[in-house]
Amino acid sequence: MTEAGDDTEEPQRHTGHLIRRAQQVHVANWMRLVSREISTVQYSVLVVLDRYGELSQRELGDEVDLDRSTVADLIARMERHGLVLRGQDPRDGRRKTVRLTDRGLDERRRLQPLVDRVEEQLTGSLPGQTRDALRSALRLLLEQRDRTP
């Protein structure tokens, strides 16, 4: 038995291993039920832009937890597919902005019930309190990472 009292054998007792396996299940379900063209990260961008409207690329990166170069590449791909439109802030020419196109908004709305199905497949077998505790624990892990220098 480990110090934490968990007698599960390696690697199954390691949180990182379990997160990786859960992510594999999530991605497989996503590709089967939601989209092979729009990734979970791209969907997050659609959701955030739907919620806030036009944002700077930096603000968008902060909201979806992506670095600047990743956001720039992601937005360029999404713009080529007609989902978002990039522009420049007329008040600050250095500030690059992003907003949804009508097609992007339509895709966000079309995908929403499919995303809910993926979430149900991933966590639906968990009792409500357990599902909520899992999400809370994962948020705490991420918040701790953000506070660590």
If you had to describe this structure to a student in words, what would you say it looks like?
With 149 residues, this protein is mostly helical. It has one domain: Winged helix-like DNA-binding domain superfamily/Winged helix DNA-binding domain (Arc Repressor Mutant, subunit A), CATH 1.10.10. It contains six helices and three strands. Strands 1-3-2 form a three-stranded antiparallel beta sheet. Strand 2 and strand 3 form a beta hairpin. The protein is globular and about 60 Å long. The two termini are 32 Å apart. 15% of the residues are buried.
What's the order of the H and E elements?
A: HHEHHEEHH
CATH class: Mainly Alpha
Q: Give unreliable regions as ranges.
A: none
Sheet/helix structural class: mainly alpha
Radius of gyration: 18 Å
- Shape field: globular
Please describe the biggest sheet, giving its number of strands, its sense, and whether it closes into a barrel.
3 strands, antiparallel
CATH architectural label = Orthogonal Bundle
What is the number of strand segments? 3
| Beta fraction | 5-15%
First-residue to last-residue Cα separation:
32 Å
CATH superfamily: Winged helix-like DNA-binding domain superfamily/Winged helix DNA-binding domain
- Total discrete domains: 1
Looking at the chains present, what oligomeric state does this protein adopt? Answer: single chain
Summarize the SSE layout with pairings.
Blueprint: H1 15-33, H2 40-52, E1 55-56, H3 57-64, H4 68-80, E2 84-89, E3 92-100, H5 102-123, H6 128-147
Antiparallel strand pairs: 1-3, 2-3
Helix pairs in contact: 1-5, 2-5, 3-4
